[in-house]
Amino acid sequence: MILPIRAFGDSVLRRKAQEINKDYPELKTLIENMFDTMNGANGIGLAAPQIGLDIRLFIIDVSPLADDEDYEDIADELKDFKKVFINAQILEESGEEWKFNEGCLSIPEVREDVKRKSTIKIEYYDENFVKHTDTFKDIRARVIQHEYDHIEGILFTDHLSALKKKIVKGKLQKIANGDVSVNYKMRFPK
Asked: Is the pTM of this model over 0.70?
């Protein structure tokens, strides 16, 4: 089932999410619905707060990037990179910072360069509640960091300079007011 994505301005996007346990009601259905929602919006990541749930759960699927010429050197690693992260904790961020033009399903029509470290070490549970500690780099680390921010109540626009924040402020207000055109379901705060 495709769920509405919460728009910028919704308070759930600013709350630090709560941990869940393996008995969380209908977890498998929720994860399936999140993948349906993300795919329906042509996204590569989605966090539970974006569908109105303040729980520490996010999903990513970067397989669509495997066909992008910018990633041809890591295409084999990307083509099957579809993961569920429950109760994730980033343990370490390392490597050089690099800029990348990020966007967000909750903030449509806004894209800006964000600096992030190139490598992360993260501890998380998968959809079967098996614990993992993994290291990710390149675009995979970037997408994980972006989604991880969501469960911490942080949006990519929080990483912008004061000047850039001022420039996008009007666009963000329009989104909060529902004055945006998207081809997926959204729920606006006003």
From this structure: yes
